[in-house]
Amino acid sequence: MTSKPAGPPDGGWGWVVAAAAFAVNGLSYGLLRSLGLALPDLAEHFDRSTQDTAWVSALALAVQQAASPVGSALSTRWGARPVVMVGGVLTSLGFVFSAFARSLLHLYLGLGVLAGSGWALVFAPALGTLSRYFSRRRVLAVGLALTGNGASSLLLAPTLQLLLDTFGWRGALLVLGAITLHLAPCGALLRPLVLPGDPPAPPRGPLAALGLGLFARRAFSVFALGTALVGGGYFVPYVHLAPHALDQGLGGYGAALVVAVAAVGDAGARLISGWLADQGWVPLSRLLLVFGALTGLGVLAVGLAPLAGSQEGCRGALLAAAGAYGLSAGSYAPLVFGVLPGLVGVGGVVQATGLVMMLMSLGGLLGPPLSGFLRDETGDFTASFLACGSFILSGSFIYMGLPGALPSCPPASPSPQATPPPERGELLPVLPVALLSSSGGPPSTLDTTC
Amino acid sequence: MRAPSGLLGPRGLLPLALLCLLAAARGSLADGQPTVSPLTSVPIEEERITKYSNLSLESHNIPPTVSPLTSVPIEEERITKYSNLSLESHNIPPTVSPLTSVPIEEERITKYSNLSLESHNIPPTASPLTSLPIRREMMTKYSNLSLESHNISLTEHSNVPVEKNITLERPSNIELTCQITISRGVNSVNVTWKKGDELLENYLTNATGCILYAQYMFTIINSKQMGSYSCFFGGEKEQRGTFNFKVPEIHGKNKPLITYVGDSTVLMCKCQHCSPLHWTWYHSNGSVQVPIDVQMSEKYAINRTNANETRLKIMQLTEDNQGSYWCHAVFQLGESEERVQLVVLSYLVPLKPFLGIVVEVAILVAVILLCETYTQKKKKHIDDGKEFEQVEQLKSDDTNGVENNAPRHRKNESVSH
Fold it and tell me: In chain A, what residues touch B368 (CB-CB under 8 Å)?
């Protein structure tokens, strides 16, 4: 019995997939963030500087993001489920291998390359599959999945500390290898879904699978450029917010409070923005622009907080700025993934997710070292935060080129009620037929350029 | 001779009188014999000869003649010679007037480096019935030692004794000053200095306005002189200030170091701003500390990159190597130690939770996949059943005629999804 595939279920098994994506996010990004706890022990054991051991996390993050397109390419060819399960096993092997490391090089290879590649295979397919399971509540579901990051930091950080105190770093890495193996059951939960708009046959050849053809679309290219610029500044507060607070004389607990305010704001905002975006009151690309700009302003505020003057005033200003940054950055995150189906259609979401991760990784590689360099040159973080804020603002400025971002033209349909979020590439401009057949993407149906 | 700067007006006549005495005394600096007067209960004279390296040093004390009714030692004389200098210090013993209760004079001549400096104190004769301490002048300097000055301020009616901790690593000259603000009756306050329980002598007191200063100067050369020095101010309520002298503390790692069999590890001890003469390491598996012999085996290596830290590297760890390791820092003025704990585990220890979790994950995956195939089979079975029904319905509809086309379409649509 062949049935015409229906639209995204928007519920049902979709919530299970959301939970699986939540766990995937927690076991990849959340674990990577908490890994910093083990770095001092590693530095002490191998008698290397903090900077050398910091490369372990940086390398893992870089490999994870840069190799994301490979993960999405493999999952378009074979489906998300086997790819994520293999990725989970690969990550686990990376941790087990690094538990027996005899030198820092083994750690770079085990944690950085192996585990990073495993993570690259899990994140984009999981999030892409989630986007396919929802339409009306897509951004909320994505926001929910992205909170896994913060929740896992809360849970994994004390657990990791306990493991380090009980088993030392070797035993801790070994047990972490077993914990990351939970990515495999998460992958098992990603049931394949057949949707209208999927390409009829799997793409031929690795390059087509990577989805590089997506760049041919103007909307996606604009989005890609803007996101790459935003990526340059987006990750810096993750790394440098605490040292900035310490530099301003806040003390250990004061700095921890600033980071906590940003983290809580971030997690809460992801859910709220997801819900808000799904209501459809404002086009997603406009929300992306607004929250991107607000994030940039938040980062600028964090950098300028020391100008508040007195110690008390500075502390209050820094807390407020951190809260503003957290709220806006959290609102921005699910929108990045939520807007993709509108740009490339549901069929290309998985590939687009991988490409977006790779672009953000470029920024993630450049941003923190630039920020650190500026801090070393000028003596405090004000210049670095100003630079990052300007990166984010320029990226948001580029988002103005996205269709639907600027409210300059009257709506195409005179209907006053909220329109469902675009999912078949309605935001795409009309493309010549030849270009369509070469890229192999889904056909566009509407023209919204004005 | 230079007149000392502290010579006050009314006593200006004394220098002339005592100058003659001085000239006479200069000629003969032989050892004097102590004469102990009755009614004294404390030792009254000392003599010290200290020799440094290749220098000769002579120190002479002319013992005081103690007047009756005094209860404290009243004078000493020290002559100290340092390095290649000759240093002469003369004390003209005071003639102590009766009814004084405080020491009243000393004189010292100190010479420094390649300068000759003579300093003479012509001590005043204390007037009777004065209870004000009379200022003395003291100059003792070791040319190659530094001077450390420490102050404590006390208030008259506080309940809390004030303490100051001082970290000392090299022999130094020390100058301790206690000051107390007295509302009234500065004269009635009795000043004493003690080291531990032992009474000290040779301190200075001074009063300006409502503040009373007590000063004690001495030299710390070895560990016996370290400890607690206290100044006491008598009065309605005794106030005390304490200076605690300690060698620098060293810091290791607070948490135990966890390693595995076959690893090599580095144990480190360091101190903030100190440079000990040398470091030693001990290993204790219980209560006895066994020194670690570095030359003995290739297992241990001691690395000393900076003066203020030491690293013990242990290769090829075995479970015997676990326990407490002690690092000792030896200073000229004492020793300081710290403990570092080492735990050596075998790989089987974390393997158990690892295997447990892997088994749990395998079970989870199996359950998820089985559930899915089960529900799919069930759905397929239901679908098959519905399809069978559908086929049956079609067959029956066919026999019924064409007018049943519409319901058939509707049924088909409801089945497909």
Answer: 185, 188-189
Q: Do the Cβ atoms of B345 and A191 come within 8 Å? A: no
pLDDT digits (tens, 9 = 90+) for B8-47: 444 444 555 444 444 444 444 444 443 433 443 333 333 3
Residue A5: list chain B partners with CB under 8 A: none
Q: How far apart are CA A342 and CA A337, in angstroms?
A: 10
The alpha carbon of residue A167 is apart from the nearest alpha carbon of chain B, in Å, by 7
Task: Give the ranges where B84-154 is alpha helix by DSSP (H).
Answer: none
On whether ipTM exceeds 0.85, the answer is: no
pLDDT one-digit tens code per residue, B266-314 = 888 888 888 888 888 888 877 788 887 777 677 788 877 788 888 888 8
Residues of B in contact with A188 (CB under 8 A): 364-365, 368-369, 372
**CA-based nearest residue to A250, from A298, A325, A314, A331:** A314
CB pair distance less than 8 Å for B417 and A6: yes
Nearest CA among A110, A246, A74, A92 for reference residue A178: A92
3-state secondary structure B27-82: HCCCCCCCECCCCCCCCCCCCCCCCCCCCCCCCCCCCCECCCCCCCCCCCCCCCCC
- Which residue, A126, A435, A411, is CA-closest to A283? A411
Q: For residue A105, which phi and psi values (nearest 5 degrees)? A: -60, -40
How many Å apart are CA A438 and CA A203, to the nearest integer? 11
Higher-confidence position of B175 and A259: B175
Alpha-carbon torsion (B133, B137, B141, B147), positive or negative: positive
Interface size between A and B, measured as CB pairs under 8 A: 71
Q: Phi and psi for A130 in degrees, rounded to 5?
A: -60, -40
Residues 6+ apart with CB under 8 A from A237: A262, A299, A302, A325, A329, A385, A388
